[in-house]
Amino acid sequence: MSGHHASSTISAEVRAVEAFLEERGLLEPGEIDTRIDEFLAGGSPANGARIVARAWVDARFAERLLADANIAIREVGLSMAGGIQEQRLKVVANSAEEHNVVVCTLCSCYPIALLGPSPSWYKSEAYRSRVVREPRGVLRELGLELPASTAIAVWDASAESRYMVMPRRPEGTDGLSEEELAGLVTRKGLIGTAAV
Amino acid sequence: MPDRFAPGDRVRTRALDPAGHTRLPRYARGAVGTVVEPAGRHPLADDRARGLRPDPQPVYHVRFAAADLFGDGDHSVTVELWEDYLTPAEEQA
After folding, report:
1. pLDDT tens column, A74-104
2. B61 contacts A88? CB cut-off 8 A
3. Residues of A in contact with B78 (CB under 8 A)
4. Phi and psi (nearest 5°) for B3?
5. Could you tell me where the beta strands, DSSP code E, fall in chain A?
6. ipTM topping 0.90
7. Is A104 annotated in the active site?
8. From the list A134, A153, A159, which residue is nearest B59 (CB)?
9. Which end of chain A is more exposed for a tag (fewer CB within 10 A), N or C?
10. pLDDT > 70: what percent of chain B?
């Protein structure tokens, strides 16, 4: 395993299991790191941004994306099939009436293939416990003040699906190309803790 | 086996506190919500964590009003729940 949690008990336990499996010939030395690297390769918020920009310029793609994201993202050359099995992707679209925000209260589930590794605050107990309870206040603390008339929908990734938010297209961006639009979309926007 | 629930169905979550692993978050236990849509079929995580190899069963996105979970709040929380966690809301109402 990589050394991120080198001091923790769980890390020592994992290392012991890993060493045992290597000793028995069930695991090649370094195989887990290789598998993790393969899983993370190519994962970046630029992927999610590309999907959103396509949906902004192509309403029919947006419809397909919201109906079956796994199939739709193949149109832009992306996939949720990079792990052990293909993960279901659900894209939720913001509107003037409703803003969406994603969390994993039980652990830290996250669409790594489309957003890259998750930010540390996403994995924090504070975010995970508070955003389901008082999302308006949490979003305000993160710099997103929503009008009182905008309802908030929190999505808790408690099972096998992964969620991504489709932000609203900002005003005054009619002249921008799809690529320029993708450049406006941030990781926080794709999680739902920023407007875009 | 067909899915037991359809979008729009009102469902109640299990209130039990299981001894082992579960993916039914504590805050969403014993609560009534509405099925949004099915989310595929997967082996129940609770059983897998016990070393069993259960058959896949339907999983649903279920939306709850915050007020029904926490007593206040004007937002909604959508949780992804295995069919085993759910009963029709009217059965225990």
Report:
1. 999 999 987 778 899 999 999 999 999 999 9
2. no
3. 153-156
4. -60, 140
5. 89-93, 98-103, 151-156, 162-166
6. yes
7. yes
8. A159
9. N
10. 97
**How is domain A45-191 classified at the architecture level of CATH?**
Alpha-Beta Complex (3.90)
pLDDT of residue A3: 43
Contact A63, A187 (CB under 8 A): no
Residues A87 and A162: beta-carbon distance below 8 Å: yes
Q: Residue A97 corresponds to which tokens in the numbers above?
A: 């009436």
pLDDT digits (tens, 9 = 90+) for A120-176: 999 999 999 999 999 999 999 999 999 999 999 999 999 999 999 999 999 999 999
Q: What's the mean pLDDT in B31-55?
A: 95
Q: How many helices (H) and strands (E) does chain B have?
A: 3, 5
Task: Report chain A residues touching chain B, CB-CB < 8 A.
Answer: 88, 90, 105-106, 132-136, 151-161
Which of A131, A132, A162 has the highest number of chain B CBs within 10 A, making it the mutation to test binding with B?
A132
Instruction: Give the Å distances, CA to CA, from A2 to A14, A110, B85.
Output: 11, 20, 36
Domains (range + CATH), chain B: 10-92 (2.30.30.50)
Annotated active-site residue A107? The verdict is: yes
Q: Is B48 on the interface with A (CB under 8 A)?
A: no
